[in-house]
Amino acid sequence: MTTVVPIRNTRVMLVDVPTIRPHVLAMATMSKQTIVLVEIEREDGVRGYGEATTIGGLAYGEESPESIKVAVETYFKPLIQNCDANRPASVMALLNRQIVGNRFAKCAVETALFDAMGRASNLPVSELLGGRQRDVLPVAWTLASGHTAKDIDEAEQMLAAKRHNVFKIKIGKRDIVKDCDHVAAIAKALGDRASIRVDVNQHWTRAHAMQGIARLQYAGVSLIEQPIAATDVVGMHQLCNRFDLAIMADEALTGPSSAARYIEALACDVISLKINQSGGLTEARKVAALAEVAHVALYGGTMLEGGIGTAAAAHLFSTLPAMEWGTELFGPLLLTEELLVEPLVYRDFGLVVPSGPGLGVVIDQEKIAHFERK
Ligand code: MUC
Ligand code: MG
Predict the structure, then answer these.
(1) Ligand 1 atom closest to 23 (CA)
(2) Which DSSP letter does residue 192 get?
(3) Residue 45 DSSP SS3
């Protein structure tokens, strides 16, 4: 029986960090990322951290960094104040009863509780989640400079450094032929040295998807991520039936219910599992379980979180059956600044899952203070 340790304080920090180059997605071009950090302090003085980082303000989803901060400070904080920090499941049940949606905020709070509990008990979060099955996760990189030659050059550098040999190319912004030619040129330059995937971020109609995916399949692309609207379950099912390459759902998946709907409708070959999109570590684990029983493949997705969110996802993913399509947990590498005292270790095309207590990473308080939005 663990002792009761009340939650003493909850704090949210918005930390604006430039990206190493413009990251061009169909719905937004990022030149900075706003890292949303939640700090939970327990009565015994132990602090835990979680991340609720999203992409492009309100361009990607319905929670923005600013709305997350207000929601946690105004509604989450008073609810969880004095709750037993050693009972994350019970705290999350309370939040889920009292607060609709707000999945990113919930993810950050749950992560911070697990981080603190792990630190206090000297156990990594992966052990609190059932124990890990592996210590290293394969990691893809996203090519999204918006220029074909720059993307090829970037991929060559990653291959030479043995950092990534799986590349996800962002398209959907330009006309379909230009986008497909861009991907085909990259695929041709890299040949069989790399696996090429594409993310359209919902920007095609059904007709464009039929046309575009045929071209991309011919170019040697192995997977297409969310080519059409997340709400178009029937359209996604049609694409899965029509094409041999894998069709992955991403924005469509907002936790176990939507994952169950997609799986039932045979609307995806692969699920992009994201802890923030799912509403936390426990909810993401339920999505993974649904995929496993339905024999749907998994991919470890990201919302381009910094070191805290990336470590949290890595802890969960390490406890799951092997992810057939690997992961894309490269978020911290897209930032110009390292926000951890010791950076996460990327080597031999993989991310080493941290092994210390809690998330196994320590935030650099000086850096956070410097970059925190005032
Ligand atoms: C997305 O839609 O997958 C993940 C990697 C990246 O570059 O963007 C994100 C979001
Ligand atoms: Mg995506």
Answers:
(1) 7
(2) G
(3) coil
